[in-house]
Amino acid sequence: VMVLMLIGLCHSGPGNDDDMCAIGGSASCCNICPTNMEQRITSLETRLQNTEREVQELRRLTQGNTFTKLTKKCTPRVAFSAALAGSGNTGPFMTATPLKYKKVFSNTGNCYNPSTGIFTATVSGMFFFRFSMFNNMTPAPNSVVSLMKNNERLTSVWDTAASDVHDSGSNAVVISLKVGDNVFVQLEPNRAVYDDGMHYNTFSGFLLFPM
């Protein structure tokens, strides 16, 4: 407002000097050059525009950091890895039996139950699972283990009796799960796996992304 008053006063005719001095208390206001005033206004406008750009950039950065923090906070973390514990054969059994991997290396999210060997999804999403098996020559037919989703067989590892003493194998899948779905490794009937404390038989999985 003061800037506009000064510009208006300086553009007044010479006959208004007394009025101007009466308002401003001095005639010195008449010495202000309109050109200098315009330069000052232009400079202020430039600084204001720069400030607005800085505020917008800070707002953008703040919103980005907030989104990242919220994403990390809201995205569930699910991962586990376990192995058979102890030494000797597991099996054979008369019926298909879930393997209980009691040596737990990690269990983020606590979705894997070492007492049952079953992973239960607590979030819907895309998951990765991998399992391995190892056998030792036994009188029983050698190993056949399968990765199960509820009652559905997803994939298997199969090794039959032969002249070689030790065999191992592994398999993996990427599957979608809904909350409450169960995933486990099943030892097929009349089959066996072997371990000697070196953790050859493992079961691992983790959430790739929620859906």
Automatic annotation (TrEMBL):
Native source organism of the sequence: Poecilia formosa
Domain (C1q) ranges: 73-211
Keyword Signal annotated: yes
Main location: secreted
SUPFAM superfamilies: TNF-like
Entries under Pfam families matching the protein: C1q
Keywords: Secreted, Signal
Gene3D superfamilies linked: 2.60.120.40
Coiled coil ranges: none
GO cellular component, one term: extracellular region
Classification via SMART domains: C1Q
Descriptive protein name: C1q domain-containing protein
Subcellular location: Secreted
InterPro entries: C1q_dom (IPR001073), Cerebellin_Synaptic_Org (IPR050822), Tumour_necrosis_fac-like_dom (IPR008983)
